[in-house]
Amino acid sequence: MTKEKADLLQGTLDMLILKALQIEPMHGFGLSVRLRRMSKELFQVEMGSLYPALCRIEARGWIKAVWGISDNNRKARYYSLTHSGRKQLGEETNRWETLSTTINSMLRAT
Amino acid sequence: MSRIRQALFRLQSVFRRKAFEAEMSEEIRTHLEMQTEANIAAGMTPNEAHYAARRDFGGVDQIKERYRDERHPRWLEDCFRDLRHSVRVLLRERAFTATVLTIFAICVAANVAIFSVVDGVLLKRLPFPEAEGIYTVYDSYPKAGFDGGISVPHYLERSREITAFAESAAYRTVWVAAGDRGSTQGIEAMATSAGFFSLLRSAPVLGRTYTEGETALGSPHVVILSDTLWRSRFNADPAALGKVLMMDDEPYTVIGVMPASFRFPTTHPVAWIPLVFTKVEQTDLYRHGAMLAGMCVRLRPGVTEAQARIQLDALNTRTLKRDPYAKMVVEGAGYHPAINGLHATMVARIRSVLVFLQAGALFLLLIGAVNLANLITVRAVGRAREYSVRRALGAGSARLGRSIILETLVLSLTGGAVGIAAGLAALRVTFHTFSERLPFDMSAQPDLSVCVVTLAGAMLSGLLLSIPVVWQTLHENLTLSLSSESRTGTTTRSMQRVRQGLIIAQITLAFVLLSGTGLLSLGLFKLLSVNPGFRPAHVLTGMVDLPAFRYPEAKRKALALQISERIRALPGVSSSGISTLLPFTWNGGGAAIVFKNRKPTPEEAAEPHLVVSVAGDLFTTLGIPLVRGRLLGDGDVSTVQKACVVDTKFAQRYWPKGDALGSAITPDSGPDPVYYTIVGIVGAIKQNDLASEKDFGTMYVPYGGERNVMLALRTVEDPVSLGTTLDKVVKQVDPYLDVHDVRLMEARIDGSLSGRWVAVALAGLYAGVALLLATIGIYGVLAYTVAQRRREIGIRMALGARPDQVLRMILGSGLRMLAFSLPAGAIGAVLIGRVMAGFLYGVGPTHFGVLATTSAVLAAAAMAACLIPARRAARVAPAEALRST
What we know:
The complex is a heterodimer of chains A (110) and B (885). By secondary structure, chain A is α+β, with helices and mostly antiparallel strands. Chain A has helices spanning 3-20, 28-38, 47-60, 83-108; strands at residues 26-27, 63-69, 75-81.
């Protein structure tokens, strides 16, 4: 995998994670389920990507993690969006929209 | 910002590694359990659900590894592991670590301490605002050995007419008796012109400074107190303002108090009073009288020193035209006005000593660095096998290099930190020594930047020191180095040569330092044995102030004679005398001599001669021999017919044929002088510096009632016990008088040499450390060589070599290094001797005795260092050596 491609995919996953956390804090498993639902079962995120991505985003200060108790009384690490995470999500969304519009129009061009 | 946060986040996880690992496992376990539950809810059996969850999740350990990578990069963790390893290794090799740290600490400490002083004294600005604009202006008479003062007419003309000077101020020292009658205390006051404080941009903490009007003749007296005087006389009471301080029995109103940090222009002025010029001082008669200690000016903004100098010279050319003494002072004494930066003037006296000390400290650093390089390479070779094994087991070059560099860095940074701490401790002592001699408050605070630069230097040297080791280790042929320590191997030749080169360099440098110290000590030793021309042993001296308000001039003569008489009557005192200027009490001064019968040549007229007033048996007391004629007696003090005595130097200067007796001379260049007839010639003495060769001769005249009187007495026994008696005797004559500065004559002479003692002591310290380092270096290398050649020596002995042959072989390798370094050191020593010529007294830059002694000392030290490993080699038991791996 070339570096650029990896960056693109990573960036995309980061954005999707931020998006998934936008409504409420969530633990790793819940996040994987939600990501799948959000993509209408088409997108299966690999755990080997999810957890390192969470760690990376946490290091950047976009999300923060706290230990909490899940619905069925289990200790789990909950991730929530920070203020700068929200800002980042807005920026990423804009950038993505610009990019996809541009690429779409280029693909449709004859 | 976010980058820093990321780095911190990662760094934190390195330290919290265990906690992080536990959290990670916990999180993954939770995930798997939740997935399993979800699968069961979807209708799987528990077993199926468990495996499906695992399958979906993927390889747990791989994920953990990726997780960790994300969390903290591997190299960082490896670095920490290497660091821990280095510290462990260094702690294990205690002898090596302690040696290296000590060397590092000594070298760094010496440099930090000396450089902080250099920085504070030579490099920092003066503690006055806009100090770079302040200059000193003075009259210089180089041929007469006179430099520094300025006359009143010159000061007035220059401050009035030179447009380059925006502000100017003058000052002179006055000794006054402060306090009410009966409890006076002699203090050093500075009489300054009104603009003095504003020129220095310094203000009092309390009250005000004096106005121009207060410096006029006859205006009411005012005084500004120093912090010291304010505390001692007024208990630091703010209400001191407006109170009266009696000085010389006249009332001075206190108008201000200066801050404790302000001390200028001498080291410890106690009070400042307005400088008042008398009428006569302003006349041409005093044009070259240097009645002022100094003149400070502040240049107009934008004016350069060179421009100011041009104006000064132009004015001087004009004034010389009306100067009746012009021909005499210019031709005879090389008179010219001079201007110099205030800072440069102030530090001029200690500059050379400081530069010299700093050079010595840098030299020491150089030796230390060479020694460290040597120790570290020796050790690296010892660990070559460890490195080779690590490489053979797959450690990469980068990894290995990094661990070597880290290890050296740990050493150098720790050594640097210890050195800084020791240096700062030493700084407290050294700085005190130097700041005492400065006429202003220099911040003794060690600079943070000095510490930072030192640490950076330590780090850089650590990197530099590790380069040869890294290079050697990485270029080593693996199989060769693995086998070099084994049965068949010998040590690599290139490494051996590098080490020997370093040792040679070290001995050479130590040679230079040792011989430099030798020259300095020899100079001091010669100086100590210089005959001062009199006999200082058993002579006690003290000072008495006879203030004008109490004693008119005529009364003082009788009083002084009475004191001298009473002292002589004390038991154990063989003779006593009075003088206005005892040797080794004061520096400089002098008057030109006028002859009754002839006009002097310009050169003769400009030569300053000390003129000393004496009474009692001064010559006998000091042990100054009479050469011809007679000595001055108490009778000469009272008679109208004035007699005088001159010393041999003086007599030879003006009467080389030996017909001085009977000539009439006077030190008074005024219009109607009193002439003194020479009645005797006495031996010349050293007046204030044993090293001084520039002495124009002294004229002794009968005591004429001068205010400051110095007492001298010679005792049969040790005179120390007489100190308090002396004060009692003087108090018997008049209870208001007191004797101060009571010291043995020998102590005064020793005091004049204190600067030289400091230099010799420090140089000795440097040389001692250098010698020690060189010895350690030689020992280290040879001890290591012997350990390495154990097997070879064992083989030699098994084949029939006798122990003494082995001994000679090892000593021989030590001698070879000496043979290279001694000549090199001798050349360096001769060069350094040339540089130091100014510091040396009576010793040429090339002194064969010193060179020979240095060689002998170094050779002895080197041999001693060789002997231990050589004897160890000779005791090698062949069977044992061959058997060991």
